């Protein structure tokens, strides 16, 4: 009975300290205060060799990405071209059924209501061409 209490206390102490011991080899450690963590880069073992890092820095220097990233910028996205030609897209549209064409027209705003008021379906065709806010129009208030 006397041996149970020391064993139980040592097990409790081990369970409390185990997460702290495991995090000793991590980059971040828990800290008190507003920040919540501290950073320790010397606790992390890198798997990349120095030669690999120097090669990647040289490649980034040559293609200009190092200069952009060192100034806090982002890398430009390389433009991709469409796999279809203009004529292929045109033929694809012409071969669509009338229902599919109507759905596309409604989706992109060139459908049956394109001449109507954009805020609500009134018959005032001139409202569609005005750039004024809808509330300022006197005749078309729902």
Summarize the structure.
With 142 residues, the chain is mostly helical. The protein is built from 5 helices and 2 strands, in the order αββαααα. It has a domain at 96-130.
Question: Mean pLDDT score, rounded?
Answer: 75
Question: How much of the residues is beta strand, in percent?
Answer: under 5%
- CA-atom Rg in angstroms: 33 Å
Q: What is the helix fraction of residues, given as a range?
A: 40-55%
Mass-distribution shape: elongated
Strand order of the largest sheet: 1-2
Largest sheet descriptor: 2 strands, antiparallel
Succession of helices and strands = HEEHHHH
Number of strands: 2
* SS-based class: mainly alpha
Quickly count the helices.
Answer: 5
Which parts are unreliable, with pLDDT below 50 for 5 consecutive residues or more? Answer: 134-138
Distance between the termini: 85 Å
